[in-house]
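Q: How would the structure tokens look for this protein?
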Amino acid sequence: MQLEGYLIDHEVDLSVFEARYRNDETGAPAYDPGILLKIVLYAYARGIISSREIERCCRENIIFMALSADTQPHFSTLAGFVSSMSDEVSVLFRDVLLYCDEMGLIGKELFAIDGCKLPSNASKEWSGTRADFEKKKQKMEGAIRYLVKRHRERDKSDEEVSVVEREEKQLKTLREKVRKIKRWLDDNDDKPGKGGKPKKSNLTDNESAKMKSAHGVIQGYDGVAAVDAKHQIVVHAEAFGEAQEHDLLIPMIEGTRKNFQQIARAGDIFADTRLTADAGFHTESNMKCLFEEGIDGYVADTLFRRRDPRFAGASRYKERHRQEQREARGGVVLFANHDFHYDPVRQLCICPAGKKLYRNGSHVVVNGYQAVKFRAPKSACRPCHLRAQCLRHPDRSEVRQVYFFSGQAPNRPETFTSKMKRKIDSVLGRAIYGRRLGTVEPVFANITRMLGLNRFTLRGKRKVNTQWLLYCLVHNIGKIHRYAPGWS
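A: Here is the predicted structure in token form.
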């Protein structure tokens, strides 16, 4: 609490709040933004996110009473303060980052970029395309017609009052949901996605995204952070409503570069600083950008671990787990390439049923890689008893085809992805990339577990980004308290 008070009173420029509090001629006296900021930061440091809970603490907790000067701000004041400071929070974040730099807490030797996917204040059940919402609306309208019909039939018969009340409540809920869908359909269109297919929208928070996380499929945002390796100081942070992280690497690099230019007025921070990121950020265009800009980056690809001899046998455990899960759900496990016996010397391939496949090309090029292609004969594949386990669509596909890759195609220019593979597979590259996990993951563990941010409580990218920056700000203040001279 003492450190937070010192930073806000002496190191943070609160003049950014002056414009919104110029209400001398009209309006009630405003709360001091410094006081509100102290309250919010201390509450987040204690794992208290709810504005109503923060209001209660300002009435009952002696520390909050001291921070608020016993003003006891209303929860709506606290919620409005947080949700409306999207422009000011970036300035506050850079002020604290500048203080961290002055205290020597930022090594500027290695940055690690990663994302933490958290649910937002929106339900994934209200996600879909316009076609999905039209179908949902028609289904609900059908249920409404059925309930109305039941009401008319009830006039001719006696029925319990509890049943009538329950159905009337259900009818009211369905009508409200239909109105909600109609309003969205009138004002919105599908979000364009890659490949021409629309991305799923959300009726409650259309800037959030439906994404896969470690806890299943969620509707939320990806809180991405760039972290310095010396003391795990967050040097840049931003929340994105994107299910994939492919397009987030370049914005994070630009944001980090901008922060250091504004706090140090120096050149490009990445001129002497290494960058690491996991496979979620790996694309050919991203690798091209790193090499062309001269950034010493180490970004893993999806096959990085398979090439590591220490993980040579790891895939069998993962495959066994997947097979057990599918069998438990009654699903069918399809045969993979390793289930086919391939003899590269004799150019021979035997399927799991013991049938010989004929070679359909020995120099086939797929995505720039050379492969040998085998195709099953119709006479053996059509009547096979393992057809359902071999083909994804046994009713449409005639026969099974198998590719065995032998390497990059000759006379093909080396891709930037190949350059990154060669770089990261070196002894030095693996050593540098190995520092990524211990740099960025503890930050997310601290924010989500110790500071209690298990979900974003606001809606809209600007508000969610504000909450994410505030939590990263609290994390950095904790690092100052632990490592900075005079505070540790």
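The first helix runs from residue 2 to 11.

The chain has a mean pLDDT of 86.

Upvote if useful.
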